[in-house]
Amino acid sequence: MADITNIAAVHGAPRHDAATARAPVPLTDVSYTAWRSLSERAIEPNAYYLPDWELAVNASAPGRTGASALVATDETSTHMTGLMPVVSLWQAYKIPLPAIVSAHPYGTLCTPYLDRETADDAVTRLIRQARQAGARALLLREVSLDGAAMRVFDDNLGREGLRPRVLQSHVRACLDATRDAEALLHDALSGKKLKELRRQRQRLAEHGVVRFNVARSPETVASALETFLALEASGWKGQRGTALIQLAGDAAFIRRATRALAGYGQCEIVTLYAGDKPVAAGVVLRHQDRAFFFKLGVDERFAKYSPGVQLTLDLTRHLCADPAIASADSTASPDHPMINPIWRGRLAVGDVLIPLRPNDPVVTLIHAALASRRLAFETARSAFRFIRKHRGKSA
Predict the structure, then answer these.
(1) CATH 3.40.630 for domain 178-325
(2) How would CATH label the architecture of 4-171+349-394?
(3) Quick one: which of 72, 81, 82, 70 has its CA closest to 139?
(4) What is the average pLDDT score of the chain?
(5) pTM of the predicted protein model
(6) Three-state SS string across 116-139, please?
């Protein structure tokens, strides 16, 4: 209904706008070379918008295909200065209103790429393209609220008298990898907790020598990924049907993306073994000086030894020892019970609605529709949790 390629015509933009609308380009038509080059110059890291990751998501991940892109170039139209993968508001939320939404790249971060040298001009051109497409608003989903990219948007919009609206926000765990790992862990966890974790590790060692392995090459990453996928599917995610390997499109995306990124040194699979038995594994992406802890899988038969925590402790030491990494984004839920006590830094993330015209009543309508949808979602989720809790007590 509201395909992003004809958003102006579908949503009743003024006649002259619809006639001259320049739609976002299909994601697959974006120059891979220019995209990768821009990622290296981006003002803020986001591994989930690296071309090898986002193109793999767009190719097969269920519910995340069919994305387009807003693309900014310099005056010569040969040098890419900004890129934002996008979908229509209809495709994102089934709301038939004229807005363009950042495409969800599976990881929980949608910060767009802006050339650090020409970031302000890139924002101007991205906004201009959105207007030319007939959009009345941009919705930046799960963007770093205090990051460099959002600061450029704020400054740029302020000069036009436009004020972004934060629709929802939360903080999640992140790691200051410039610190000494042992000092960081000692500060984060009590002496009693660290002693208990050492005891659990010693008990785990009764099943074989405990070792932490990092796969880096495309070949070793491909092999280690299969171990991760099996571990993830063996636990509660497999029981809920949300493990990556359970849907062919998800499995195809993660296999393609991790192998391709490993070729650039931007993906690692970390695995904790007890003897020859893998007990926990995680997917870690890298972009610029930041790591991204994408997903974790554990063998729940070893749950009493806290294998996920043990892996995270080793990963913390691994990242803190790497001079190329300054920080790590957990990309976890805001109340994650495992990572929050260990990685004590916090990253503010949220959804930001950007009006493209001053005092536009359509933006107010878009805002209200999104707020109503979110309220309905939160109400349904609360009801589901209540029912599940009540059933658990009745069992």
Answers:
(1) yes
(2) 3-Layer(aba) Sandwich (3.40)
(3) 70
(4) 92
(5) 0.91
(6) CCCHHHHHHHHHHHHHHCCCCEEE
